[in-house]
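Review form for a predicted model. The reviewer records the input and the model, then writes brief findings.
Reviewer: anonymous (R2)
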Amino acid sequence: MNIMEFLDNSSVHYDVSEHTPVFGAQKIAQAEHEPGKFVAKPVIVKVDGKNMMFVLPACYKIDLNAIKELLGARKVELADEKEFRTIFDDCELGAEPPFGNLYHLPVIMDKALSSDDHIMFQAGTYDHAIRLNMDDYRRLVEPKILDFSYHTR
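Model under review:
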C-alpha cells in the first residue's frame, strides 16, 4: 500500500503538490517554499543490526552518538542504501515517506518536529510532496520522540 492509499484509508486530510523532481529534503523545502523545519527527512539507521527509521527536520543533521546513548545501543550506523530497494519497493530510492510503520520499521521522531503544526514529506517520488497535520501524523505513525539531531547553520 503506498502512502496516499494509506492516508486515504485513514480518512485524514492531506494536500499533495507536484514540483520539479528534486533529491533531498532541503531541496523539497526550496521547491515547495516551505521552511526546512517543517519538511521531514527520514533516515534509516541500523541500531544493533536492526533497521529503524529516524525522522528529523530537513535543516537538521542526525547525531548517531546521541542515538547510541539514548537507546543504550552497542552499534549504530547508517543503513546501506542498497537495502532500501527491498524495504521501500513502492518508492523511488531516496524518496521514502516518514511512515516506517508501513514498512515494519520502528519510527523515532526528533523532538524538533514535535511541536510543529504540520509536516511535509516526499510522497514516494521525487516530484510529489505531501503536507499533513502533525496531530494526524503522530496518530497514524505513533513515533517515539527523542532528541537526536542538531540544526545546521
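Findings: Helices lie at 3-9, 25-32, 64-71, 81-87, 111-114, 134-141.
Further findings: The mean pLDDT is 93.
Recommendation: see findings above.
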